[in-house]
């Protein structure tokens, strides 16, 4: 019987070796994926040839021929589609960057307020979270755009703040800075001050670890930032000159302007994402062992320092992974800008450029690649930060 079994299943059979089987299945999977990709590519190329549609990315050099409401770099209607792509990318990064910073700050404040022993603060934070996280972001974008920004007064009846800031149904007008001759020494002094502060912080922490004596790092750093660059202003003058927006005719001229679409989109994404971040912060804080806070209280630390020095640093290890997902969601939700006409990647490039050129495959491939690159960049940075703050066993 043993001889028969060995004959039917030889010891060196390929299918009895798990490693060999794993390699065979992986090779077959790769072959299947490559074959499917080639089939799709060949089928697409054949259909394009039948319809006389040219493929390739040469269209990026053609003149766009249309205007763009907001562009962070110089642009004219005679510029190429390639420059339109860059403008759409910068506008997407602008919304994502402002939204991530704003949602993080607001989310942390709300998350801490959610745990406040003050009944009113706790309930207000709860109402905010339960309200805004259960309303679709597109509806919130519509609310801020149609019900708030477009309902603002006309430029002649603008809401004025300090004779420098003006808001109306055409946007928010801000003073714009321009460098003077004193900007270079001011910048050099600022950079040197920051470098000195970094070394001072490291020295202060090492001193505290060695002697247990704290050093007033925050107050000293603020004093250095005020005094050293301030001396350059006294010696060389103001490093910046400001251009104040002025009402000329039917609209304001000069300064910077945030168009209504940008304000509505940024507010909606910030407020929406902050509600989710607040719950992440709340759960992260509650994940910290209660004995940690009791030990800190027994040492006589005030509540503020307990939160800043004991609770938050430990809770970050729980907060960072889900926080990364919210950053990714915010960056991808910025594509909802197409609903109100903000010139981001989807609205500008995958919308207007695609309709004018007909290069659907190329345009969609570029747009998808941009969002993939943004998401991977955010993930890599957050994973690096998560590893840096992770607990290291000794």
Question: Can you put this structure into words, describing what you see?
Answer:
- This protein is of the alpha+beta class and 394 residues long.
- Among the domains are: 14-50; 81-152 and 259-389, MetI-like fold.
- It has helices at 2-8, 18-50, 81-114, 119-132, 137-149, 183-211, 217-236, 260-286, 290-298, 303-333, 345-357, 360-389, and strands at residues 159-161, 165-168, 171-174, 176-179, 240-243, 246-248, 251-253, 256-258.
- Strand 2 and strand 3 form a beta hairpin.
- Residues 1-9 have low confidence and may be disordered.
Distance between the termini: 56 Å
Shape, per Cα inertia axes: globular
The arrangement of helices and strands along the chain is HHHHHEEEEHHEEEEHHHHH
Runs in which pLDDT lies below 50 for 5 or more consecutive residues are 1-9
According to CATH, the fold-level topology of the domain at 81-152 and 259-389 is MetI-like fold
In the sheet with the most strands, the strands line up as 1-2-3-8
Q: Please identify the top-level CATH class of the domain at 81-152 and 259-389.
A: Mainly Alpha
Number of helices: 12
CATH superfamily of the domain at 81-152 and 259-389: MetI-like
Number of strands: 8
Give Rg in angstroms: 29 Å
Helix content: 55-70%
CATH architecture group name of the domain at 81-152 and 259-389: Orthogonal Bundle
Q: How much is the average pLDDT?
A: 87
Subcellular location: Cell inner membrane; Cell membrane
Keywords: Amino-acid transport, Cell membrane, Membrane, Transmembrane, Transmembrane helix, Transport
Pfam families: BPD_transp_1
Domain ABC transmembrane type-1: 89-382
């Amino acid at each position: 019987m043993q001889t028969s079994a060995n004959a039917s299943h030889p010891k060196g059979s390929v299918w009895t070796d798990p490693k060999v089987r794993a390699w065979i299945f992986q090779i077959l999977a790769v072959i299947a994926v490559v074959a499917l990709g080639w089939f799709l590519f060949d089928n697409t190329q054949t259909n394009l040839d039948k319809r006389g549609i040219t493929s390739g990315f040469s269209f990026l050099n053609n003149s766009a021929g249309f205007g763009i409401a907001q562009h962070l770099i110089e642009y004219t209607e005679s510029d190429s589609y390639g420059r339109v792509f860059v403008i759409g990318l910068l506008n997407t990064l602008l919304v994502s960057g402002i939204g991530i910073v704003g949602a993080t700050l607001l989310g942390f404040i709300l998350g801490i307020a959610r745990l406040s022993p003050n009944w009113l603060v706790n309930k207000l934070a709860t109402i905010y979270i339960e309200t805004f996280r259960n309303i679709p972001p597109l509806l919130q974008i519509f609310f801020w755009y149609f019900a708030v920004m477009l309902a603002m007064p006309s430029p002649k009846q603008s809401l004025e703040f300090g004779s420098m800031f003006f808001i109306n149904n055409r946007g928010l007008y801000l003073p714009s800075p321009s460098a003077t001759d004193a900007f270079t020494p001011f910048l050099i002094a600022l950079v040197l001050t920051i470098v000195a502060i970094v070394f001072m912080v490291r020295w202060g922490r090492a001193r505290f670890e060695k002697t247990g004596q704290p050093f007033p790092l925050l107050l000293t750093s603020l004093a250095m930032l005020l005094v050293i660059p301030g001396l350059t202003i006294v010696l060389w003058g103001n490093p910046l000159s400001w251009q104040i927006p002025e009402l000329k005719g039917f609209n304001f001229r000069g300064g910077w302007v945030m168009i209504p679409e940008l304000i509505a989109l940024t507010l909606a994404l910030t407020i929406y994402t902050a509600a989710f971040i607040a719950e992440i912060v709340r759960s992260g804080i509650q994940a910290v062992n209660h004995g940690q806070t009791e030990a800190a209280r027994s040492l006589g630390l005030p509540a503020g320092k307990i939160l800043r020095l004991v609770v938050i640093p430990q809770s970050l290890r729980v907060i960072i992974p889900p926080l990364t997902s919210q950053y990714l969601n915010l960056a991808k939700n910025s594509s909802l800008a197409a609903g109100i006409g903000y010139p981001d990647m989807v609205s500008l490039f995958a919308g207007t450029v695609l309709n004018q050129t007909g290069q659907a495959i190329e345009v969609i491939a570029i747009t998808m690649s941009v969002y993939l690159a943004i998401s991977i960049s955010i993930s890599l940075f957050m994973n690096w930060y998560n590893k840096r703050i992770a607990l290291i066993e000794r």
